[in-house]
Amino acid sequence: MASSTSYNPPCAACKFLRRKCLPGCMFAPYFPPEEPQKFANVHKIFGASNVTKLLNEVLPHQREDAVNSLAYEAEARVRDPVYGCVGAIAFLQKKVGRLQKELDAANADLIRLTCSENNLPATLQPRTATPIPRQVEYNRLRINGSGGNGGGLHRIQTSFPYPFPLPRNDSDYNPHGGGIN
């Protein structure tokens, strides 16, 4: 005869800890049996009792995010025991900085090409690879969504010659003062 009860495999936490997984198991929703390594890493770094205490202190709707954060940090600590996820963040920040410099250089090249195509004097060409401040770029171009001319971008006149001397660094540009200090 077949049993009418269905078999639910124990969650990864209970299986790892070799205990019976009860219906109200706190770990079951967050550590499914298909992901045993997730709990193994969390247990190795934080310990099961500390994770239990943490989950009891966190509101029920925030527990999944807390477990995901613990699992991410635990995996990062397993890969890099010294720096953990901070090492990954530092690596990505350096990469963003390098890509920002490449973008700044490309923007400067684009401005130089635009100046040479328009036969502007070299004195008006930018001296640094700093991108155009957003407020000035907004003043240069205006989005016209109405009217009979089909909308789109339209050049408007500004009170300063373009291109203008770009700020040497971020502290030279004051967005509240209306331009370069």
Tell me what the structure shows.
There is one protein chain. With 181 residues, this protein is mostly helical. Helices cover 46% and strands 6% of the residues. The strands form 2 sheets. It has a two-stranded antiparallel sheet with strand order 1-2. Helix 2 crosses helix 4 (63-79). The longest helix is centred in the middle third of the chain and has 33 residues, at 85-117. The protein is elongated, with a radius of gyration of 29 Å. It starts with 11 loop residues before the first helix and ends with a strand. The relative contact order is 0.07.
Strand order of the largest sheet: 1-2
Tell me the radius of gyration: 29 Å
Number of helices: 6
Helix content: 40-55%
Main sheet summary: 2 strands, antiparallel
Q: How are the SSEs placed, and which strands pair?
A:
Elements: H1 12-17, H2 36-45, H3 48-57, H4 63-79, H5 85-117, H6 134-140, E1 141-143, E2 153-155, E3 173-174, E4 179-180
Helix pairs in contact: 2-4
Give the gist of this structure:
The chain is mainly alpha-helical and 181 residues long. The chain has 6 helices and 4 strands.
Q: Could you name the key traits of this structure?
A:
mainly alpha; two-stranded antiparallel sheet; elongated; two-stranded antiparallel ribbon; 46% helix; single chain
